[in-house]
Write a sequence for this structure.
């Protein structure tokens, strides 16, 4: 099945999200749709999928014009989509989810034919080596497996065009590799795959054709052999340096000293075991590891959000474990949480209020318990300017900003007070190339200004680019602290639990 | 609007899924002005239909509607217009009044009825904005009234000290009854909706038991009512003896100003709002979520206690189990209608005070059951709770994420 989009235009009010976009998707090929967040990729796919009506242009299947009133029509036509946020019923089993919307019945009483659904899951699972149990409950599955359930669901409807919307945003490096392998198999079996992404590594690894979208327009097509720099500058519209400029660190005194810190969670599982390390002024200490190996617990224990079961942390000579969060922040800790929308921002507060969310009770923002709106606004204007937060007004809600600009709000807030230590968890997750560059630059500036910096990241690229030292975490322990020159393979093995550099070699 | 990031529309489904009960509560509690006005219009329209059905002349004219439609139409018009005219007369301006005082009397009564609703509505609105659904105003009013009454009839001292202490007693009682669900929520996670409802029953039975004690019994009376409070503990009348309106109304307006200042200008209110909008982010920013939860309930309870003062020290100078009327529940409606904002709450309370004050006129002039007023109130709430319904009726566009940008 050959799918063609011709001159698709979609407007929201005055805003043109898609402007005369042409796209051809051939069977047995992987077509990458590359663009920054907000470039209009998702809008285009939602239009194709029948969620939006295009204002202009047409969709053709095998050269015949078609129109979809909704996702149901698109699915019937053989187009399936795996959304960035999965559309699964969490308490249902894999088989039930796969069957949902296409239930089969058996017997005189029209009982649900669960066995047929199970069989279908097993069949597809075996064909592509998915290793998914049809009776597993979806909410118990790791994110990578949930995504495979979505793919099985699509394939069970005999989808000939599979759209993957930012499929790797939520995956670990290992899961990403597994997904790319699955995409290869799908392609080889004749499925057309549309991969929506802003990650250059994946595009280069798997795409047959690349279409780059910027500000709702197709700005070019590229071969997978194009360099990362070429693709990035097409995407952003200007030259982008993919490497981070930084001078060698000049570490000073020990700022943070973590001594035998352990965390046991509510149900009695040890999440962090006997972790010790020092971080010095003027160095970036990166913590690498697959998500869920104790990094979250470590940062939250340092912030004071969870109580450690044993051990302590000393920030500039003062024990911070056991102190309330407000006092830890006041001791000179800047904290960029891993989930900015959940922990970093109040979505329906204004940008100005979010910029003072943890200093609202300090001068100059307030005095004697009374806020000073004029000062708050002035400080916000200053931060918006300095941190290049793209918004027409500081009085818009933070929730209305794009991910990159939201992260800039969090960074601006944390960096605009004097810091001894900055902890940033996944500081560039979900950000576009331009924003990543900016965030990295600010973090290095903070290091050069003499702060100790801890970066927690699941992205090896980021860890290697920023770190002056790398600690690798596995199952709640630090398996080794290595220099940034360490090879990616070695780091990968350590992330899988190999104990030291020597063991891994 | 051009500020809307391009991915907004695409992100809308994900956003919608994230809406938990907390944000649903916020959406209802912070409805737009237009929506509220349309809800009132819609509820008046539906009430008109109910008034028609309740009207015997209209029903009598209906069977021969096609022969003589004017009979039914004129009977219907007569019924609806006289009902709404009666509400207007009973709530705002008595056109038959011979003096200015007689004409304005209904509005004075409206403001008197509105006073306790303003206090309690302000407290509930603060709770809404802090993410707490406080159903316990009724119990808080009862306990506030109990403490206030004890000050009022057990102690004897000159005006205004007696009044001030009695008002403080009311506020303290309410605050105490708000503190209990607050600390239960903060320490054990017990949901405030459940605990406040239960505390309403406890308060009612506690007051009922207290009134059976000798210390609370009025001399020479078998009814469960306390002795009459000293005149020195009562709010003075605002315009002398001819109207019931008392200084509690002025205090209520001041309280509204204070509530606005607290929520918009104080660092404490900033924390209330942050905890209400996103407790995780508030915690990460160093706010003590459990302490804030307790404080919110204490403040909300104190406002409810002041509502008790408006009743007890304003219009009904003795403690009975009926002292709270249905104020604690009506105030929830008032807070919703006022979009949890102090100014809106005052307007909503005056509207509801007016509907309450108009009840007798409706019965006497239009011959309609007082319950129509309750129906109108209930319909308003129903429409506010279902914004898509109002949008459907008035063909308003569905707001997209872009709309939220402007909000």
């Amino acid at each position: 099945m050959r799918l063609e989009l011709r001159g698709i235009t979609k407007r929201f009010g005055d805003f043109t999200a898609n402007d005369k976009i042409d796209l051809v998707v051939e069977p047995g090929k992987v077509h990458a749709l590359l663009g920054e967040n907000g470039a209009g990729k998702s809008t285009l796919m939602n239009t194709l999928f029948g969620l939006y009506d295009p204002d202009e242009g047409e969709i053709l299947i095998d050269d015949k014009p078609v129109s979809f009133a909704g996702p149901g029509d698109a699915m019937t036509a053989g187009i399936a989509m795996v959304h960035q946020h999965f559309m699964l019923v969490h308490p249902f089993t894999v088989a039930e989810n796969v069957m949902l919307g296409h239930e089969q019945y058996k017997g005189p009483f029209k009982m649900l034919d669960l066995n047929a659904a199970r069989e279908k899951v097993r069949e597809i699972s075996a064909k592509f080596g998915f290793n998914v149990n049809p009776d597993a409950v979806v909410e118990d599955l790791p994110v990578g497996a949930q995504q495979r359930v979505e793919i099985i669901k699509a394939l069970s409807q005999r989808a000939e065009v599979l759209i993957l919307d930012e499929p790797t945003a939520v995956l670990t490096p290992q899961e990403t590799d597994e997904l790319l392998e699955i995409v290869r198999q799908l392609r080889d079996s004749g499925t057309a795959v549309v991969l929506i992404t802003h990650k250059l590594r994946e595009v280069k690894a798997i795409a047959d054709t690349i279409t780059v979208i910027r500000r709702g327009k197709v700005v070019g097509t590229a071969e997978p052999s194009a360099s990362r720099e070429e693709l990035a500058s097409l995407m952003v519209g200007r030259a982008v340096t993919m490497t981070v400029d930084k001078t060698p660190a000049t570490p000073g005194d020990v700022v943070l000293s973590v001594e035998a810190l352990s965390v046991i969670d509510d149900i009695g599982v040890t999440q962090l075991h006997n972790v010790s390390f020092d971080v010095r002024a003027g160095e970036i200490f990166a913590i690498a590891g697959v998500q869920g190996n104790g990094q979250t617990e470590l940062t939250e224990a340092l912030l004071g959000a969870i109580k450690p079961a044993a051990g302590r942390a000393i920030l500039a000579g003062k024990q911070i474990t056991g102190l309330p969060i407000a006092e830890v922040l006041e001791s000179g800790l800047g904290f960029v949480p891993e989930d900015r929308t959940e922990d970093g921002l109040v979505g329906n507060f204004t940008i100005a209020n979010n910029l003072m969310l943890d200093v609202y009770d300090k001068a100059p923002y307030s005095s004697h318990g009374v806020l000073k709106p004029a000062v708050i606004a002035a400080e916000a204007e200053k931060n918006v300017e300095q941190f290049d937060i793209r918004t027409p007004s500081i009085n818009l809600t933070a929730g209305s900003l794009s991910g990159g600009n939201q992260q800039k709000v969090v960074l601006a807030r944390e960096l605009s007070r004097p810091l001894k230590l900055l902890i940033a968890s996944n500081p560039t997750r979900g950000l576009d190339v331009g924003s990543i560059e900016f965030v990295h630059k600010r973090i290095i500036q903070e290091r050069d200004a003499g702060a100790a910096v801890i970066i927690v990241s699941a992205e090896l690229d980021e860890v290697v680019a920023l770190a002056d030292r790398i600690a690798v975490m596995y199952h709640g322990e630090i398996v080794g602290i290595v220099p940034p020159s360490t090879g990616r393979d070695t780091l990968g093995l350590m992330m899988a639990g190999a104990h030291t550099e020597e063991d891994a070699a | 609007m051009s500020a809307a990031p391009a991915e907004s529309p695409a992100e809308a489904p994900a956003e919608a899924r994230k809406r938990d009960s907390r944000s649903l509560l916020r959406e209802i509690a912070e409805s737009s002005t237009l929506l509220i006005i349309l809800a009132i219009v819609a509820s008046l329209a539906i009430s008109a239909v109910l008034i028609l059905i309740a009207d015997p002349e209209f029903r009598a004219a209906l069977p021969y509607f096609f022969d003589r439609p004017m009979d039914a139409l004129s009977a219907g018009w007569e019924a609806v217009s006289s009902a709404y005219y009666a509400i207007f007369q009973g709530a705002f301006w008595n056109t038959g009044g011979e003096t200015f005082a007689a004409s304005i009397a209904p509005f004075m009564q409206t403001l008197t009825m509105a006073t306790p609703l303003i206090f309690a509505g302000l407290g509930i609105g603060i709770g809404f904005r802090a993410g707490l659904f406080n159903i316990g105003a009724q119990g808080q009013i009862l306990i506030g009234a109990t403490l206030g009454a004890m000050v009022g009839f057990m102690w004897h001292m000159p005006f205004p000290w007696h009044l001030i202490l009695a008002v403080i007693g009311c506020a303290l009682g309410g605050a105490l009854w708000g503190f209990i669900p607050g600390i239960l929520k903060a320490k054990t996670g017990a949901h405030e909706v459940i605990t406040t409802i239960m505390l309403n029953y406890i308060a009612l039975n506690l007051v009922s038991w207290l009134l059976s004690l000798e210390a609370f019994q009025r001399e020479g009376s078998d009814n469960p009512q306390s002795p009459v409070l000293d005149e020195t503990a009562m709010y003075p009348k605002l315009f002398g003896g001819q109207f019931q309106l008392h200084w509690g109304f002025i205090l209520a307006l001041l309280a509204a100003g204070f509530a606005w200042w607290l929520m918009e200008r104080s660092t404490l209110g900033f924390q209330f709002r942050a905890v209400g909008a996103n407790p995780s982010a508030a915690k990460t920013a160093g706010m003590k979520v459990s302490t804030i939860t307790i404080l919110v309930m204490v403040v909300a309870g104190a406002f409810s206690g002041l509502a008790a003062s408006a009743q007890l020290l304003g219009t009904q100078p003795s403690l009975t189990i009926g002292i709270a009327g249905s104020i604690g529940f009506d105030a929830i409606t008032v807070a919703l209608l006022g979009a949890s904002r102090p100014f809106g709450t005052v307007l909503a309370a005056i509207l509801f005070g007016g509907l309450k004050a108009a009840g007798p006129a409706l019965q006497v002039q239009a011959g309609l059951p007082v319950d129509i007023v309750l129906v109108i109130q209930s319909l308003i709430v129903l429409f506010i709770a279902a914004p898509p319904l109002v949008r459907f009726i008035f063909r308003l566009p569905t707001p997209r994420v872009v709309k939220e940008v402007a909000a």
Observations:
- The longest strand of chain B covers residues 238-241.
